[in-house]
């Protein structure tokens, strides 16, 4: 009889009756072979591994994170309530002390979902990690959280949500944005003026293999985590760095993923992408579960794995070493970097065009942050989409100071329906979400 | 006429049912070391003076296999196992004579490493040298492709009396459980065979040449012949006998609790719309986790003879038992003594029961009768708390589709049925605490034997079809066949029902009254790139547990000419 060294909770929700479209990578079949492998391996029978049924998230949970336009029902399906709920269930099991660690093996994923949601981008509608984290902060009083996103794609949605939050360390390790969707996640992206340094991007060159990933974890991620001292570590566990993934160009293996999981010691892992549904997911997920539970994974090798074939070149190694050095330098000098950034006159403003590749929506955003030394700062986002919808979202952070609170409500109160179709206030201090009523038609 | 005989830990209960209803009933003491004599004594008790020609069927539920496991009296078995990527298969060894060999299939049942035939033969030869006569072969994902297991069995067969293959026992995915299941079947086989052949022989001498059937833990039976292929299916059939007995008068809609309250324990099970709820995977016994289909049951140490004590000012009942109630010469007070004090039970020594309860009454600061009531109430509370915990576990069982999660409703039983020795007495108090109606199963002292007699033949199958490989596999049925690329979900359902019908008939089901149902049917489009390369289809079908056709629950009569 096998015993888990670390009590580990699992939510497995493969959504066998849900797809973005019949031939989309995010389809019914995605976790079928993973289920087969996990069941056949008998993982759920192991003493110390517990499977939980996912709870549903509430609208309140979603609105603590997102401005959904026009409302959450319009941008979410039942499946999103469950996958975010699965992450929340695992988070609660960990916080309640029922298990030491947990893994939400759920779909659909969430790390490309920004604070403002007009629809689906990068297969994501709502950010399931952020919804879980903000719930846990509210329910259990957690403050400092680190998110390590090991999906092959830059976790731009999570980055957007925590861009201004100095209490959330967001580290994304991904294939260089010049070679892969969503085309972001460069070294220069380090967070807004109130949170310089707590956004960290580690772009890796194509064809990075186990060696490069594990180097990055050991040499960059772990030391930074030691400095930051989070109360909770969340791993956005995308599995598309695998050498067999059809839409990326990396050479990571299942045992490499297991090793990464062992090193990272995340409290909670949440499945993100990964579309090599036969060649990678069954093995990678098994590896992650074994590693989280503290079980041996030496016999876990993909049938076609050839370490020689997937060894990284010296050029790749050098690039990774250089990138790592730069990341560490920025982290150590983050106060100086912050001063330099704040010296810029336009540092409180950001404007962006965002493309929702899955739903074919164009969004234009103008963001204003109150530069503040006392809190994460009041935030105002104006967003319009090519669906002819204009929205104003005002965000008051969880630990907002009185000045930022005043600023936030001033923005909200002054907003006019002549300019915006929807006016929202996300007051995370009072845990309230307000929708400004439209004036009666004249 | 049908005879039902259920061997329990202390008694063997036996009934003779005819078209007139319950003709005879008897209880004989169980001698675990002489089970054969116990069974014959039980049969004698109801067959005396009955024309043997009128007896058409005998259904047995015994503790034979379970005792072998619990008492660790299993004979040596040679296990040969091939794994693949994942957990080291050496960690799954259920026994001493266990060899891991080369060879592997992937999750879709495609060979990823070939067998080394010489290695397998050497292992079998070595086992034979060590005097091992029974062997088991198991491979990972053999339910998706049993070719390796079949080849291994063919290599091993010349070196042993009997070889068992993992895929013949269940279509469910779970490699470690498949190993345990195969091991138990091989290990139980020789004793099972000797025992039932002896029973059959003895019955023949008495002129009873009737079909013999054996109860399984899923609430169904199988015939004598097919039990030799699946001898471990006889393990832990006891709880299912009671549940099937209660089924005779259970409501046909809604959720219903069934509580079997004995001297030592209370066993609980659930009916949903008149059908017993099955456990998700299989029975667990001793250190073994299996794929042997079973009713979902839960047992707690609260019964009529459980020890009653005061702990930190609070009353507790069980979980231990130290012999009989005080009224019957025991040394510690029990719920039975409380019933005696309350006048709900006759027999035994009232004075001793009162003496047993006196210190408890004094500590509680109440009269004897009040103390007795509190004891019974406490026992009922513990039983219902355990039932609620079991319900909580069932209701929180994960599901894997949006539809089931969104639409799934919670089970909330509104009725409770009690059987077992102190059923009547407990029922009166359970009624006050249970939010719903409570009833006592008729003939509750032998309802388990009645359940045994009336259970129908059950079986189940799991069919996997992969139209891109053009293969369909139904493991337990040893069915492995090519299918056309255009094979559909509807074809799969039909094939599954056809295979299930054949299997049920082989197991002894009545062809005129087969109640087959599809439990699950999923179809996945397999997309590679942006092209559909085929369909991955999974269908599960079963004969659901229930009573044989022709039993009239209202009259309690058997309306069948042939039985």
UniProtKB/TrEMBL annotation, chain A:
Molecular functions (GO terms): histone deacetylase activity
Similarity remark: Belongs to the histone deacetylase family.
Descriptive protein name: Histone deacetylase
Biological processes annotated in GO: epigenetic regulation of gene expression
Ranges for domain Histone deacetylase: 80-278
CDD domains: HDAC_classII
TrEMBL record, chain B:
Tree of life domain: Bacteria
GO biological process: glutathione metabolic process
Domain Hydantoinase A/oxoprolinase stretches: 178-460
Signal peptide feature range: none
GO function terms (MF aspect): 5-oxoprolinase (ATP-hydrolyzing) activity
Positions of the Hydantoinase/oxoprolinase N-terminal domain: 3-156
Entry GO terms, CC: cytosol
Family annotation (PANTHER family): 5-OXOPROLINASE, 5-OXOPROLINASE RELATED
Protein's UniProt name: Hydantoinase/oxoprolinase family protein
Organism, scientific name: Desulfatitalea alkaliphila
Top-level taxonomy: Bacteria, Pseudomonadati, Thermodesulfobacteriota, Desulfobacteria, Desulfobacterales
């Amino acid at each position: 009889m096998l015993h888990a060294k670390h009590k580990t909770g699992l939510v497995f929700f493969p959504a066998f009756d849900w797809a973005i479209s019949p031939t989309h990578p995010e389809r019914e079949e995605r976790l079928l072979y993973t289920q087969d492998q996990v069941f056949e391996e008998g993982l759920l029978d192991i003493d110390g591994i517990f499977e939980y049924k996912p709870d549903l998230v509430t609208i309140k949970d979603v609105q603590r994170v997102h401005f959904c336009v026009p409302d959450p029902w319009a941008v979410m399906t039942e499946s999103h309530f469950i996958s975010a709920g699965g992450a929340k269930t695992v988070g609660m099991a960990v916080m309640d002390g029922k298990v030491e660690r947990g893994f939400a093996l759920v779909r659909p994923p969430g790390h490309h979902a920004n604070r403002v949601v007009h629809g689906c981008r990068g297969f994501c509608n709502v950010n399931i990690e952020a919804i879980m984290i903000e719930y846990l902060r509210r329910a259990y009083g957690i403050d400092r959280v680190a998110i390590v996103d090991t999906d092959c794609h830059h976790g731009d949605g999570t980055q957007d949500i925590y861009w201004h939050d100095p209490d959330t360390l967001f580290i994304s390790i991904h294939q260089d944005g010049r070679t892969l969707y969503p085309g972001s996640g460069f070294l220069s992206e380090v967070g807004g003026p109130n949170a310089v340094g707590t956004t960290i991007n580690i772009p890796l060159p194509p064809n990075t293999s186990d060696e490069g990933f594990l180097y990055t974890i050991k040499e960059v991620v772990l030391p930074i985590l030691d400095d930051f001292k989070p109360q909770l570590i969340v791993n956005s566990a995308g599995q598309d760095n695998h050498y067999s993934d059809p839409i990326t160009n990396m050479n990571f293996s299942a045992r490499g993923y297991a090793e990464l999981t062992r090193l990272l010691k995340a409290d909670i892992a949440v499945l993100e992408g990964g579309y090599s549904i036969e060649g990678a997911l069954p093995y990678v997920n098994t590896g992650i579960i074994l590693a989280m539970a503290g079980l041996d994974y030496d016999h876990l090798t993909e049938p076609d794995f050839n370490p020689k074939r997937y060894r990284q070149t010296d050029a790749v190694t050098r690039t990774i070493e250089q990138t790592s050095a730069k990341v560490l330098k920025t982290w150590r000098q983050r106060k100086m970097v912050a001063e330099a950034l704040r010296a810029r006159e336009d540092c409180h403003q950001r404007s962006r065009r965002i493309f929702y590749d899955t739903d074919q929506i164009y969004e234009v955003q103008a963001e204003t942050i109150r530069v503040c030394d006392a809190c994460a700062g009041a935030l105002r986002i104006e967003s319009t989409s090519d669906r002819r919808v204009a929205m104003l979202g005002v965000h008051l952070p969880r630990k907002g100071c009185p000045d930022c609170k005043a600023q936030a409500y001033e923005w909200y109160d002054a907003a006019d329906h002549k300019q915006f179709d929807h006016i929202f206030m996300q007051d995370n201090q009072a845990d309230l979400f307000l929708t400004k009523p439209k004036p009666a038609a004249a | 006429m049908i005879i039902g005989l259920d061997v329990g830990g202390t008694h063997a209960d036996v009934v003779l049912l005819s078209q007139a209803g319950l003709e005879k009933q008897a209880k004989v003491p169980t001698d675990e070391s002489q089970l054969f004599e116990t069974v014959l004594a039980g049969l004698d008790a109801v067959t005396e003076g009955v024309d043997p020609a009128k007896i058409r069927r005998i259904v047995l539920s015994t503790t034979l296999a379970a005792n072998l496991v619990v008492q660790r009296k299993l004979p040596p078995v040679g296990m040969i196992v091939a794994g693949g990527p994942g957990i080291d298969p050496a960690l799954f060894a259920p026994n001493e004579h266990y060899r891991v060999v080369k060879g592997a299939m992937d999750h879709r049942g495609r060979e990823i490493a070939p067998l080394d035939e010489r290695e397998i033969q050497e292992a079998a030869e070595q086992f034979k040298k060590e005097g091992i006569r029974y062997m088991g072969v198991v491979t990972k994902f053999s339910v998706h492709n049993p070719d390796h297991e079949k080849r291994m069995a063919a290599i091993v067969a010349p070196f042993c009396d009997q070889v068992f293959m993992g895929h013949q026992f269940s279509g469910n995915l779970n490699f470690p459980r498949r190993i345990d299941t195969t091991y138990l079947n091989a290990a139980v086989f020789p004793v099972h065979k000797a025992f039932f052949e002896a029973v059959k022989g003895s019955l023949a001498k008495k002129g009873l040449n009737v079909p013999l059937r054996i109860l399984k833990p899923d609430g169904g039976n199988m015939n004598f012949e097919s039990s030799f292929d699946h001898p471990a299916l006889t393990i832990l059939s006891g709880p299912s006998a009671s549940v099937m007995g209660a089924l005779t008068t259970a409501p046909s809609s809604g959720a219903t609790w069934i509580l079997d309250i004995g001297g030592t324990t209370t066993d609980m099970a659930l009916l949903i719309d008149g059908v017993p709820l099955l456990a998700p995977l299989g029975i667990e016994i001793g250190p073994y986790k299996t794929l042997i289909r079973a009713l979902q049951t839960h047992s707690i140490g609260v019964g009529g003879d459980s020890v009653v004590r005061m702990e930190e000012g609070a009353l507790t009942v069980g979980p231990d038992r130290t012999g009989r109630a005080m009224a019957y010469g025991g040394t510690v007070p029990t719920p039975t003594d409380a019933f005696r004090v309350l006048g709900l039970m006759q027999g035994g020594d009232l004075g001793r029961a009162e003496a047993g309860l006196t210190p408890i009454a004094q500590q509680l600061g109440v009269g004897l009768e009040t103390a007795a009531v509190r004891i019974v109430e406490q026992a009922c509370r513990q039983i219902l708390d355990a039932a609620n915990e079991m319900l909580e576990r069932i209701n929180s069982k994960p599901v894997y589709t949006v539809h089931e999660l969104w639409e799934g409703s919670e089970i909330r039983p509104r009725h409770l049925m009690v059987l077992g020795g102190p059923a009547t007495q407990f029922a009166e108090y359970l009624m006050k605490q249970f939010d719903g109606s409570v009833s006592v199963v008729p003939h509750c002292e032998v309802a388990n034997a009645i359940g045994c007699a009336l259970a129908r033949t059950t079986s189940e199958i799991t069919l996997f079809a992969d139209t891109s490989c053009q293969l369909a596999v139904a493991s337990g049925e040893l069915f492995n066949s090519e299918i056309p690329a255009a094979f559909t979900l509807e074809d799969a359902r039909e094939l599954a029902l056809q295979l299930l019908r054949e299997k049920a008939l082989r197991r002894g089901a009545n062809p005129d009254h087969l109640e087959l149902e599809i439990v699950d049917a999923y179809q996945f489009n397999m997309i590679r790139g942006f092209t559909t390369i085929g369909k991955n289809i999974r269908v599960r079908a079963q004969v659901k547990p229930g009573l044989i056709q022709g039993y009239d629950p209202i009259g309690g009569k058997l309306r069948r000419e042939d039985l």
